[in-house]
Amino acid sequence: MNIHPPNPIGAARGRESGQFGSNTNHRKPSMRGAINAKCRECIYDPVGGTGTWRAQVEACTVHDCSLYPLRPVSRCERG
Ligand code: SF4
């Protein structure tokens, strides 16, 4: 039985919706986790895309996106 009402502030920040991946301990998501989640949500196509979500994000070509320099890429790609 859940005796606590939902926290509207936490829900608005995505803390209770699972928006930031597997972070289910209700802690503030990390900046890295939030960026990864945004890029994944933006570009990942599990059906028609090629490769993992990380490979698809790494292959992003939207250079004028504000997250482009911060998107998750392998060390080889980053240089
Ligand atoms: S960097 Fe690419 S994948 Fe990430 S949010 Fe911007 S456009 Fe989407």
Characterization of the model:
- With 79 residues, this protein is mostly helical.
- It has a domain at 31-79.
- It is 35% helix and 0% strand.
- The protein has 4 helices and no strands.
- The structure holds iron/sulfur cluster.
What does the secondary structure layout of this molecule look like, with pairings?
Elements: H1 8-12, H2 31-43, H3 53-58, H4 75-78
This protein binds iron/sulfur cluster.
Iron/sulfur cluster is lined by residues 38-39, 42-43, 57, 60, 62, 65, 67-68, 71.
Features of this protein?
mainly alpha, 4 helices, 35% helix, binds iron/sulfur cluster, 79 residues
Number of strands: 0
Number of helices: 4
Class of secondary structure makeup: mainly alpha
The overall pLDDT average reads: 80
Return Rg in Å.
Answer: 15 Å
Shape: globular
Strand content: under 5%
The low-pLDDT segments are 9-18
- Summarize the main sheet: none
Amino- and carboxy-terminal Cα gap: 52 Å
The topology string of helices and strands comes to: HHHH
How helix-rich are the residues, as a percent range?
25-40%
Bound molecules: iron/sulfur cluster
Give a quick rundown of the structure.
The protein is mainly alpha-helical and 79 residues long.
